[in-house]
Amino acid sequence: MCPPHPADPEPARGPGPDPGPDPNQRQLLRELLTTYADLNGSVVDELDEEPSPLEFMRYVARNTPFVVRGCASGWEALRRWDRRFLVEAMRGKKVNVAVTPRGKQQPTRRIRPLLPHLPTTVPFARIALDRAPDALNLWIGNSRSVTATHRDGYENLYVQVRGRKHFALLPALCAPALAEVALPRPPGEGPEPAGVPFPTWDPDGVAVGGQEGVRGGEPSRATSSPSSWSRTDDEGFVLAVNYWYDMDYSGSLYPLTNLVRNMSFAQRRPG
Amino acid sequence: MCPPHPADPEPARGPGPDPGPDPNQRQLLRELLTTYADLNGSVVDELDEEPSPLEFMRYVARNTPFVVRGCASGWEALRRWDRRFLVEAMRGKKVNVAVTPRGKQQPTRRIRPLLPHLPTTVPFARIALDRAPDALNLWIGNSRSVTATHRDGYENLYVQVRGRKHFALLPALCAPALAEVALPRPPGEGPEPAGVPFPTWDPDGVAVGGQEGVRGGEPSRATSSPSSWSRTDDEGFVLAVNYWYDMDYSGSLYPLTNLVRNMSFAQRRPG
């Protein structure tokens, strides 16, 4: 499920204690992606009904996404929400709208008038993870809406209400293939002078129908992408909600994927 | 829960494409161990009753061990097994006995006469992992018995029947601290010319009562150490059985811990 390792030319090395990009290290990262690809299929499970809490926990343990068909078919949101209803329900209410040059999405959280149409939690996830969701977000978009490739520290249950959404999901350990570079941080924002790591590899070419594509975004499906990389783009008028359950930072997964991200980022830095 | 990174002196580097041990890589591995230690306690959960399949799956997802007190109190083995009973039950039967210079243990699997006294499976594990155990082993030892630090590809449910056993359990990602070296393979055994990786760091100093010690081996307790490193030593006459459930090689854990092991092993190799 990882894209091929980008065949970037090796930068020249400078003197000093930092040997910069290391062919051995690059080889170790290549082996990581190959081992993962050998042991994991590129097909995402599609379930016809909700998993039990135990079945869900097996996906969490493998850090692997899945799709449930029709899981929201009984929701009032699915029956009642459309463009006209939203205009009525939110009339006179302030909402945050993200206007960005290329339609990169931000979620809307001020959706109190809409909450009665949504379950407050996803029972199989609440029972399995033994916690309430940390956030419930509303996503409104159209065919120009794109969410840049990113990673959230959440078990993410994404429910499509209207329209279609295309997901490209990449395992957390795919960082070596994402070619993150340090983008400058806006002035006065954050203490880190080195900038914000940002993936520059674009999964567009394989986002729909290809190995990397997860066409989970049809109405009333849910996709879970626990702490993996994801990128979405919308088709037509799109309404979706998602439930964020805090991921468990204990255990081995977070420190290990953090190591891989640090190794990969170091590979992009000239010596 | 990881021991400190061994402060081995940096070997001299040779010429050629292999830069050998890399101070950056060593620093990345140090950060891995520190991040893990910051996010995880060094205390192993002790449960007063068996976990449910879902609770067990949460431990599997975190790749974290636990102890159950009294979980085998109803077993016939616990009531009937002692030195005299074993001699009677196994009279005339062939068993494998591992005689090694320093008492390193090997399990005994030819225990058919004893099986009626043992459950054939551990229900919470069978339900959670959706599989039968791959093996059921019997361990017989005394105060000179030691199992060298090693790693098994199993979810391991270890049940102490007689005596006490001291466990040192280390997370799978602790490979950088174990100082593995390549030991020569016996002639004609295996294709790998480079030898067998073997941990040389000895957790003896902290195995009992220290941070690394898990005193889970009193009668009728079970310890699970999913694909982690473990080392045991016995106290007095010891009888124990364990159930091996194949670990799940899909998902991210195996490729990631394999990467760390390869990185750590490379650090021990002079350039």
From TrEMBL, chains A, B:
Gly residues bias: where?
Answer: 207-216
Q: Region (Disordered): which ranges?
A: 1-25, 185-231
Q: Where is the composition biased (Low complexity)?
A: 219-230
Q: Name the Gene3D superfamilies on file.
A: Jelly Rolls
UniProt protein name: Cupin-like domain-containing protein
Cupin-like domain ranges (all copies)? 55-105, 121-248
Which InterPro entries does the entry link to? Cupin_8, RmlC-like_jellyroll
Q: Which Pfam families match?
A: Cupin_8
Q: Source species, please?
A: Parascedosporium putredinis
Q: Where is the composition biased (Pro residues)?
A: 12-22, 185-196
